[in-house]
Design a protein that fits this description.
alpha/beta, Rossmann fold, 2 domains, 10 helices, about 5% strand, globular, PIN_dom, VapC50_C, PIN-like_dom_sf
Length: about 190
């Protein structure tokens, strides 16, 4: 059950990189709908992606610093010794599971579900969930707080400024169709 700040989720790199989805994840965390967790390895990968996509190193480091400043308890430490003990289909993902174990997280939010088999994660009582399903669960369980977080996200969206419908469209473009549809079909957006 995703119902409070006590619910901890490790955010994999592929859910942190797209700006619009990261914004929604961070606003939900700001509203205490869950507690985000990440590691230096995850942010190293995020930095590599930002630079590969054309951002300069200073701006990439600034974005990482802002995330760590906004959520100072999110950075998982002292997980590195667990990495070699784990066996996953993609060995490069072991650091994500190690961070989840170390932080006693409830789940890993990722769009690469196949890289985190349940038969391995079950041993650590860690679930794996897609970003879209994670966000829909949060909205479904906490509709008032979720819509407040979404409204504040819309009001603070600059460069470029977007209204709620443009943001919903951007969420769909990023593959978060269930999330955008849930906001729309539940009538949450129409109550503004």
């Amino acid at each position: 059950m995703i119902h409070s700040v006590r619910f901890k989720a490790v955010l994999d790199t592929n859910v942190i990189y797209p700006l619009i989805s990261r914004d929604l994840l961070f606003w939900f965390a700001h509203y205490d709908l869950y507690t985000p967790k990440w590691s230096k390895h995850i942010f190293y990968e995020w930095k590599e992606v930002m630079i590969r996509k054309g951002l300069n190193q200073d701006e990439a480091e600034k974005r990482i610093a802002v995330a760590n400043s906004a959520f100072p308890d999110a950075l998982v430490k002292n997980y590195e010794n667990l990495i070699p003990t784990l066996n996953l289909p993609d060995q490069k993902d072991r650091h994500v599971v190690a961070a989840a174990i170390k932080s006693n997280s409830n789940c890993i939010v990722t769009n690469n579900l196949k890289d985190f088999p349940n038969n391995i994660l079950d041993n650590f009582e860690i679930a794996v969930i897609s970003e879209d399903d994670f966000l829909v669960d949060i909205i479904d369980l906490n509709p008032e707080q979720a819509i407040s977080a979404f409204k504040e996200m819309v009001l603070n969206k600059k460069n470029p400024k977007m209204d709620e419908f443009e943001i919903l469209n951007q969420l769909r473009i990023c593959g978060l169709t269930k999330t955008a549809d849930f906001f729309t079909q539940s009538g949450l957006i129409s109550t503004w």
